[in-house]
């Protein structure tokens, strides 16, 4: 029982971490909290549904769905955010709300307001025994996928020129451009990565619930936003730490709170967030950004 | 090689540069001097593409580069070493250098170039794996210059390279600038330390309140009454 709860906690934390990381990557480069991030997740969910309905084999369908998330993020930047590049942060924020509302309406009217069942393969909902413990296959896969995604991202950011340029751009974008590195390449890559991570998170989310609905992305991305703020907005290690922390606390409270207090779980979690921010307003692991006049 | 014609720069209502005309010939060091707020850094910013020109023209190698993005100007062979160095503090010296030469040449050539830079700045070899933010001011200035040179620019814009450095380090940096010129690099130098700038430059342009008030060879300016009274304290 305890082992299962720990697996669930880490698995939920991993999903929050992937989403928070996507928000943080874009924020660290563009200074924008992309509130349409949740819709990227929803879109990937529908892409998975469509691919399965069209009869694609499951791995292929997942590949299509994740790619859709990544491409949608790049398209979002091209269509909605690039024309706003010299605008204020507030305008960008409002733009992201607009994109989010627009996509939600498209999902509701174009597909259905009601949840659609996604036929996940049977083995996903199974469990395997490990000594005395019974461990769910879904949450275990979720942990492995999150871990691999985090490692791959770290290698990309450390080793590749574009990744290094992204770390530099989070610190001082103008100087990166002075090195001849195009601003649009950096920004497009940031959105591509955030879309990839949202797509992966969507797969893990749908795997646990076997359905997609127009508001699917809202709750997890709201949590991811909280995680990113707790971790230190714009700080990538902070986003990961915040995501895992939030996921783990949520599941452990769920498991340990007496039934009478259980409905207050979110209130307790959010009080914790307030406490963290009172003690560390910059978050757990603050972002490095050189302030300039 | 570079000519700035009737450049005007505005920040909102404020006119930072009213009118600047200057030319830099190949292989020269031109010093742009003047008091704080005279418009020196804004002029460099406009040449590098960081600051939009309200009117006027910047021509490099016969091509009009006014209004181009900074990355496009960098690719044409103009490198700006910005005021305050602005190295990437959270990146290692190696990564700072790598970004400097990333888009201008194939990877193999960039490695050769990096080796040349480490030869020229031995201190950077010693701290190759150290984060830029942990270097001292003088070391950071070396890194900023080396990073700009990684892309093999034909012209370097240096903004206040002596700012905040100890006197001996200033000498080292200026020896280096002289050495770079001997190697054929064209340099536009912005400097508050007028005496130092006139020592190293071929020609100089004096700015005050966003306008050119005096221009000539460094020798002429060093002996002009205006410069002596206003900037050299003589």
Describe this structure in words.
- The complex is a heterodimer of chains A (293) and B (234).
- Chain A is mainly α.
- Chain A has helices at 2-30, 37-53, 58-81, 89-110, 137-159, 161-171, 173-178, 183-209, 218-231, 236-256, 265-279, and strands at 116-117, 127-130, 133-136, 211-212.
- A two-stranded antiparallel ribbon of chain A has the order 1-4.
- Chain B is α/β, with parallel strands linked by helices and 234 residues long.
- A six-stranded mixed sheet of chain B has the order 6-7-8-3-9-10, sandwiched between helices. Chain B has a four-stranded antiparallel sheet with strand order 2-1-4-5, with helices on one face.
- The radius of gyration of chain B is 17 Å and the shape is globular.
- Chains A and B meet through helix 6 and helix 7 of A and helix 2 and helix 3 of B.
The CATH architecture classification of chain B is 3-Layer(aba) Sandwich
Shape by Cα distribution of chain A: globular
Q: Please name the CATH topology of chain B.
A: Rossmann fold
Question: What sequence of helices (H) and strands (E) makes up the elements of chain B?
Answer: EEEHEEHEHHHHEHEHEEHH
- Beta-strand residue fraction of chain B: 25-35%
Keywords:
heterodimer; A: 293 residues; mainly alpha; two-stranded antiparallel sheet; 11 helices; 4 strands; globular; B: 234 residues; alpha/beta; Rossmann fold; six-stranded mixed β-sheet; four-stranded antiparallel β-sheet
Could you give a short description of this structure?
With 293 residues, chain A is mainly alpha-helical. Chain A is built from eleven helices and four strands.
């Amino acid at each position: 029982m305890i082992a299962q709860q720990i697996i669930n906690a880490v698995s939920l934390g991993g999903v929050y971490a992937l989403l928070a990381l996507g928000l943080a990557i874009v924020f660290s480069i563009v200074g924008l909290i992309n509130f349409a991030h949740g819709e990227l997740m929803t879109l990937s969910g529908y892409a998975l549904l469509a691919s399965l309905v069209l009869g694609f084999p499951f791995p292929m369908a997942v590949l299509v769905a994740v790619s859709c998330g990544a491409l949608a993020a790049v398209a979002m930047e091209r269509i909605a955010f690039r024309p706003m590049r010299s605008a204020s942060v507030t305008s960008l924020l409002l733009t992201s709300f607009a994109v989010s509302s627009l996509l939600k309406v498209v999902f509701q009217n174009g597909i259905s307001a009601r949840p659609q069942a996604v036929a996940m393969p049977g083995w996903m909902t199974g469990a395997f025994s490990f000594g005395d413990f019974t461990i769910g296959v879904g949450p275990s896969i979720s942990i492995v996928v999150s871990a691999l995604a985090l490692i791959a991202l770290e290698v990309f950011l450390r080793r590749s020129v574009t990744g290094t340029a992204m770390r530099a751009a989070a610190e001082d974008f103008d100087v990166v451009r002075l090195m001849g590195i195009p601003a649009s390449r950096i920004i497009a890559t940031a959105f591509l990565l955030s879309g990839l991570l949202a797509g992966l998170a969507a797969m893990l989310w749908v795997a646990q619930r076997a359905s997609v609905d127009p508001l699917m992305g809202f709750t997890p991305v709201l949590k991811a936003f909280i995680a990113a703020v707790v971790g230190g907005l714009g700080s990538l290690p902070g986003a990961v730490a915040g995501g895992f922390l939030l996921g783990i606390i949520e599941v452990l409270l769920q498991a340990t709170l007496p039934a009478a207090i259980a409905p207050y779980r979110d209130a307790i979690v959010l009080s914790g967030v307030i406490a963290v921010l009172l003690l560390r307003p910059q978050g757990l692991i603050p972002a490095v950004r050189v302030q300039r006049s | 090689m570079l000519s700035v014609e009737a450049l005007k720069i505005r920040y909102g209502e404020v006119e930072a540069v009213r009118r600047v005309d200057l030319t830099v010939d190949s292989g020269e060091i031109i010093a742009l001097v003047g008091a704080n707020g005279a418009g020196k850094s804004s002029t460099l910013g406009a040449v590098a593409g960081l600051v939009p020109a309200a009117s006027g023209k910047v021509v490099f190698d016969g091509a009009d580069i006014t209004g181009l993005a900074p990355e496009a100007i960098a690719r044409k062979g103009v490198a700006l070493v910005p005021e305050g160095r602005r190295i990437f503090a959270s990146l290692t010296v190696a990564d700072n250098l790598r970004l400097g030469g990333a888009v201008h040449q194939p990877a193999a050539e960039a490695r050769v170039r990096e080796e040349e830079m480490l030869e020229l700045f031995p201190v950077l070899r010693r701290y190759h794996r150290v984060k830029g933010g942990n270097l001292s001011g003088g070391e950071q200035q070396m890194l900023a210059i080396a990073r700009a040179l990684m892309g093999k620019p034909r012209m370097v814009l240096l903004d206040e390279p002596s700012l905040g450095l100890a006197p001996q380090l200033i000498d080292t940096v200026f020896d280096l600038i002289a050495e770079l010129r001997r190697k054929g690099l064209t340099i536009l130098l912005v400097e508050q330390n007028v005496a130092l700038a006139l020592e190293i430059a071929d020609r100089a342009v004096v700015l005050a309140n966003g306008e050119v008030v005096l221009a000539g060879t460094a020798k002429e300016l060093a002996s002009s009454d205006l410069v002596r009274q206003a900037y050299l304290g003589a």
